[in-house]
Amino acid sequence: MSWLSASRSLDNPVRSLLAIWACWKTLLLAVVVVSPGPGYDTSTQILRLQDGAVEQYVHPSAGWLSTIGQHVALKLTRWDAIYFVRLAQRGYVHEQEWAFSWGFTRLINTIALNFPGGQAESLATHALIAATISHVSHAASVVVLYKLACHVTSQNTRNGVAFITAVLHVLSPAGIFLSAPYAEALFSLFNFSGMLFYVYSIPRPDSTNSRLLRRDINVLISGACFGLASFMRSNGLLSGLLFASDLFQTLPTLPRSLLSASGLRRQMSLALAGILTACGFVAPQWVAYREYCVAQLHGEESRIWCRSLFPSIYSFVQKHYWNVGFLRYWTAPNIPLFLIAYPTLYLMLSTSSQARAGWLVVDRRIPQKSSKTRDADRPETDRYLEKCLRELALPQLVLAITAVTNFHVQIISRIASGYPVWYFGVAAALVAEAQKSHGPQFFVRPKAIVRYLICYAVVQGGLFASFLPPA
């Protein structure tokens, strides 16, 4: 991607981004359609047979476009997507199924109940709805990320960096997972939206009292968006660190701020935003608690996790059935999976560290940050932008560290799609290289990173559709 070609797309950036998104999705779907077969797992075919689909798995009233769409959607129903689609179709039966997003499956089911043509019970219909949600959410998240990048990049590079940032999200290493029946695309949309309203809430140097009121409203909207993100994926809780960080930073002035209406309102809005974020995670846990633990009141034996201080079926299932926990994944057979995850982890850790240190900048006027004096001489706007990036980097940094120590590490390649700072870093490095100016530093040239993203996503798509690891 050249700086010149990106600049030519800036006349109508949103339209250009959607055109790039459409071309990329077409390529990935073509890879899926021509993939050789189901590999070693035939779960999707078995579910189709159980559905009475041996004669005709698409409803007779479906048109040719719907038939093609459902066929492609079933090709996308691989790995965890089988759980999402099946759970949306029939609900949660087994305890271990609660590891898969309750919010996402209920959304699919709600839409399916209103699906025309008498196909509401079809597995193919649920797969098509889920894949459509992923496609639409990914397109919308590209636009939201562009708006976010415009807000947090410096004025002299704003359009170029913002545009390339959004393009990188199109080419995300999550790849086919942003098209398949997974919650990643919807999570990205809500998480980016929450971060957009959060940076709107950070006071600019010229903020007035009326703007401070708008700031607190934006904080609440941000918390609601993060709550929806947590409703789709539990790692959305990490975005609540933004509000916790802001509350911590206000502690030195807490007694004085509580004496003013704006100060008190600020504290309350941050606290409420944090509660809204947590509600997205707690709501499905409460549904499960009522189903599995309230039975104890009727003399039946409850599950062991019901007796925990903070009962969470999600945490229990991850630990009990998937062996998730601190350093549990650090075994010799998993070394290849750490190697697969390394490029994404490196980008996340390096860019978040540079952002936290205030180095994630592209500005030809300032070759480097060499002293506090130089930093003090910088315009207030630049320091404001650095603060935005520094705060947004916190959830990404914690996620990357947690992925190394606690998760099945290979999933970082897809869940990283919903965190913006590493996109900013690579985009800033590309622009800095084109302008021959100072920018974020990596071990390899930024163009090599883009080539890696493209190659990884294409190969991943073929492996995924063929039910082959290590997609």
From TrEMBL:
Highest taxon above the source species: Eukaryota
Biological process according to GO: GPI anchor biosynthetic process
Record field: transmembrane: 12-34, 123-148, 160-179, 185-203, 270-289, 329-349, 449-468
Pathway: Glycolipid biosynthesis; glycosylphosphatidylinositol-anchor biosynthesis
EC number of the protein: 2.4.1.-
Keywords: Endoplasmic reticulum, Glycosyltransferase, GPI-anchor biosynthesis, Membrane, Transferase, Transmembrane, Transmembrane helix
Membrane topology: Multi-pass membrane protein
One Pfam short name: Mannosyl_trans2
GO CC term (a single one): mannosyltransferase complex
UniProt entry tagged with the keyword Glycosyltransferase: yes
Entries under InterPro entries matching the protein: PIG-V/Gpi18 (IPR007315)
GO molecular function terms listed in the Swiss-Prot or TrEMBL record: alpha-1,6-mannosyltransferase activity; GPI mannosyltransferase activity
Compartment(s) of residence: Endoplasmic reticulum membrane
Function: Mannosyltransferase involved in glycosylphosphatidylinositol-anchor biosynthesis.
Protein family membership: Belongs to the PIGV family.
Protein name: GPI mannosyltransferase 2
Upper taxonomic lineage: Eukaryota, Fungi, Dikarya, Ascomycota, Pezizomycotina
